[in-house]
């Protein structure tokens, strides 16, 4: 195979799509190229798509995959080997003048290129290239458009191995989550002091034993803290877990191996024998919103309709709005899941953004509506994987708040 169309090795432990596959996609979408740029490792998307290991990264580099022909790269003289693992003709610069001239040379013939850019920061996950660099590319006579759809296809889509890693991580996380609820109940029953923070540390130790890693520790929240969607228990000031508390566990992790992807769930339990009526009512509404969003995706795909992120959010949000709790659902319905828990594919969002991206096959996302009241909050979270015309929930679904004490 010609070196200019050879497969690029990725950190995720597999052969990434060939450059010719990217070029085919560029031609089909009317793009002259996909221009990658990085400085101080600010763009992890570029690293994953191109399969680059972390080097020094103290100088700017550019890498263009054109719609046709060999890739082109521009690197600094003192880090001239930064892109040597990639095919293509290399230009070297040292001065700012040489950088500008070199950029114009690698952009020759390009009128429209994609970059990790999002107009008006509409998709923050993609908006990684600074405005000044975009201005430099535009000065070469080239229009810059968002790479969001390319990223979703070539970075956010999972391989069969990644899907398997998601399921494997899920088995561990589901078990640890249920065991944590049991552990909390036993501590209350035995009158053994247990705080949110201590339960969080216990869960992390179970992760360590099972070789599961996480970018941030799980959320363990009782009472009013459960009404804070991103509550972080601290060693100092963490609440004790007591009888009569609502306990919310938001748990995410992945296998400790290259290329693995996350699994991300939320469950709630009640440290008593009978769940209070108001909490049960709120859970019923949240679960109905969750189920409506899932059904919307499944029914749309089965009918052959393209599904975008924002209408999925609307489907869930309508259920909560009609129940009178619209002001207490303060975040999007779901996020893409990948090698980072918040991945770079389409989000189920019409609130924080208006995500107009189509949900692609072999991508995964969370569905996690919530209602957050001053005294407590309820969220129910599952993961949905899209495979062709099917969308499947990849783990168990909670049907009611678990009463944890008999």
User: How many helical elements?
Assistant: 9
What structural category arises from helix and sheet content? alpha+beta
Can you write the helix and strand succession as a string?
HEHEEEHEHEHHHEEEEHHEEEEEEE
Uncertain runs with pLDDT below 50, 5 residues or more? 1-17
- CATH fold label of the largest domain: Creatine Amidinohydrolase
**CATH architecture classification of the largest domain:** Alpha-Beta Complex
Overall pLDDT score: 94
How many individual β-strands? 17
Q: Biggest sheet: strands, sense, closure? A: 6 strands, mixed
Helix content: 25-40%
Please report the distance between the alpha carbons of the first and last residues: 67 Å
Considering the protein shown, what is the CATH homologous superfamily of the largest domain?
Creatinase/methionine aminopeptidase superfamily
What form results from the Cα inertia axes? elongated
Tally of discrete structural domains: 2
Strand order of the largest sheet: 4-3-2-1-5-6
Structural Rg: 24 Å
